[in-house]
Design a protein that fits this description.
By secondary structure, this protein is α+β, with helices and mostly antiparallel strands. The protein has helices at 28-40, 59-62, 83-93, 105-117, 119-129, 133-136, 140-148, 161-174, 178-198, 212-227, 235-245, 248-251, 258-273, 278-281, and strands at residues 19-23, 45-48, 72-75, 78-81, 152-153, 156-157. Helix 1 runs parallel beside helix 3. The protein binds glutathione. Residues 27-29, 51, 56, 68-71, 82-84, 116, 119, 164 line the site of glutathione.
Length: 285
């Protein structure tokens, strides 16, 4: 989605030439874009928005993407948001190896919409089993910067803002509850049961050729494995994941930082002792 010039108050970026990505190492949606760049061999400039330091709430960044989320693309001074839409936009420009094959482009868009609709579910499992509450919570004063910001998306108030703010307010107060884990993990269980059937007869999710749908789900799958979803139970999915993961273009972008790896191990032990690990709350058999 391309923003209007009037949405952007950080005017300096209007002068940026070339392809610039505002992103963060541990952000799943940013990982998609970095893998996309690797596969397509696209040259780009990197601007880190450190989500742990909550730089997404800075006036500077909200002046570029009023939604306050990464990744955000600046291409020759135009701002594009939403990872899946950014990839579709770039696929049309760098079209030598299409990851959105034209003959199934509508199907692909629907599949990506579905994947994006589960982003808060992925986030719930991340903030329950990988990132401790103390590190992930967003204090009301920080959150109010986004809540009060008057930034627009294509000239209109951001329709996603309330949902985002509500997510973080609930997380601040209650963390991620068992009920939320059960709801979200059950959705992924259904997804992987379906993928396991699909991948019994073909190499990739849309047939025998790799597409952006594989890319998007590769990133989510890695995150879900780290969150404790027992992907190894879905043999065909595991084979598909391992094949992609053997390619450095993919695996180097999804490496979990050592501190987070350690916290996820600690959270695993704590939750296991309380019998609250994801596999205690949802039966994957
Ligand atoms: N639908 C968006 C989701 C973007 C998103 O939620 N990004 C996360 C990182 S993966 C983020 O910036 N989180 C910061 C926050 O929630 O404050 C996309 O695909 O780009």
């Amino acid at each position: 989605m391309k923003l209007n010039k009037s949405d952007i108050s950080t005017k300096e970026i209007l002068e940026w030439k070339g392809i610039h990505l505002l992103h963060f190492s541990g952000s799943a949606c940013s990982q998609k874009l970095r893998i996309f760049f690797n596969i397509k061999k696209i040259k780009w400039y990197s601007h880190i928005i450190n989500l742990i330091k909550q730089e997404q709430f800075s006036e500077w960044f909200l002046g570029i993407n009023p939604r306050g989320l990464v990744p955000t693309l600046v291409h020759d001074g135009d701002v594009h948001i939403e990872s899946n839409e950014i990839m579709r936009y770039l696929d049309e420009i760098f079209n030598d190896r299409r990851l959105f094959p034209l003959h199934i482009i509508d199907e692909i868009s629907n599949d990506l919409e579905f994947e994006d609709s589960l982003h808060h579910d992925l986030r719930r499992l991340t903030f329950r089993y990988i990132i401790p509450h103390s590190l992930g919570k967003k204090a009301p004063d920080i959150l109010s910067k986004k809540e009060k910001s008057k930034g627009t998306i294509q000239g209109l108030p951001d329709e996603c803002k309330n949902r985002e703010i509500t997510f973080w307010k609930n997380h601040y107060k209650y963390g991620i509850t068992d009920e939320e884990v059960i709801e979200s993990a059950t959705k992924f269980k259904k997804v992987y049961q379906n993928f396991n059937k699909i991948l019994a007869n073909q190499n990739y999710l849309k047939g025998n050729d790799f597409t952006v749908v594989d890319l998007a789900w590769y990133v989510s799958t890695k995150r879900l494995i780290t969150s404790g979803i027992p992907i190894y139970k879905y043999k065909n999915v595991k084979k598909w994941f391992d094949k992609l993961n053997n390619d450095n273009n993919f695996s180097k972008e999804i490496k979990i930082d050592l501190p987070l790896l350690i916290t996820s191990k600690i959270l695993k032990i704590i939750n296991k002792l309380k019998r609250k690990y994801v596999t205690d709350l949802v039966d994957f058999n």
